[in-house]
């Protein structure tokens, strides 16, 4: 049985944002292996985040971000459950990161469910009509189109929650889910508006 020191618990807490007792338990279960303990806490946090997803989120922040030079600006509303959480540095940093993401990648939609049916149908038809797809057997075509739609969601101009966060492997959805796990409240990106100087709306 590995000896779990207070320093190990503190280190794990700094890395994950989890509570001290949760960190101690995770280290005990992982036999002192820090990476295993991080993975355990992440799994538990994501499970807890899924349970919180249905809870009402009516508090939060409306925040703005103006990119250097004043050529691009973003207004964003991110909701949480309590005004106490809305005032925390962690929540405010998350909102700022999301606003910067919107400024940089100009998504059109928050989530896939926000894409109007006609827009999605037109995109699907366009992808189905592509020469390399049309030549494939019918059962393969749908899979190819589904894969290309997922790629489209993640591209600049697509869906915010499906985009990679900055240049990482992590999606914006995963970033928000991890924040739910560490903060302990449901968090939802409600809406945003991006303005670019001289751009037609």
Number of helical regions:
9
Q: Mind summarizing the main beta sheet?
A: 3 strands, antiparallel
Radius of gyration: 21 Å
Shape summary: globular
Head-to-tail CA distance between termini: 63 Å
Order of helices and strands: HHHEEHHHHHHE
Overall mean pLDDT stands at 86
- Low-confidence sequence ranges: none
The side-by-side strand order for the widest beta sheet comes to 1-2-3
Total number of strands: 3
Structural class: alpha+beta
3D structure, described in words:
By secondary structure, the chain is α+β, with helices and mostly antiparallel strands. It has 9 helices and 3 strands, in the order αααββααααααβ. The chain has helices spanning 6-16, 20-29, 34-52, 83-86, 89-105, 117-128, 131-134, 138-154, 172-183, and strands at residues 59-66, 72-80, 188-196. The chain has a 3-stranded antiparallel sheet with strand order 1-2-3. A hairpin with a 5-residue loop joins strand 1 and strand 2 (72-80). Helix 3 packs across helix 9 (172-183) and helix 6 packs across helix 8. The longest helix is centred in the first third of the chain and has 19 residues, at 34-52. The N and C termini lie far apart (63 Å).
């Amino acid at each position: 049985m590995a000896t779990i020191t207070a320093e190990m618990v503190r280190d794990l807490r700094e890395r994950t944002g989890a509570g001290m007792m949760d960190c101690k338990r995770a280290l005990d279960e992982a036999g002192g292996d820090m990476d295993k303990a991080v993975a355990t806490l992440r799994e538990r946090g994501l499970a807890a985040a899924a349970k919180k997803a249905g809870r009402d989120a009516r508090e939060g922040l409306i925040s703005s971000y103006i990119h250097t030079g004043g050529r691009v600006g973003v207004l964003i509303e991110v909701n949480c459950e309590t005004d106490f959480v809305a005032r925390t540095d962690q929540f405010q940093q998350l909102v700022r990161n999301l606003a910067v993401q919107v400024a940089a990648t100009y998504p059109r939609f928050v989530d896939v469910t926000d894409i109007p049916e006609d827009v999605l149908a037109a995109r699907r038809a366009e992808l189905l009509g592509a020469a390399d797809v049309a030549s494939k057997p019918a059962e393969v075509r749908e899979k190819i189109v589904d894969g290309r739609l997922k790629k489209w969601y993640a591209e600049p101009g697509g869906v915010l929650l499906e985009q990679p966060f900055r240049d990482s492997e992590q999606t914006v959805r995963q970033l928000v889910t991890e924040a739910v796990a560490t903060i302990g409240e449901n968090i939802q990106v409600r809406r945003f508006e991006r303005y670019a100087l001289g751009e037609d709306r």
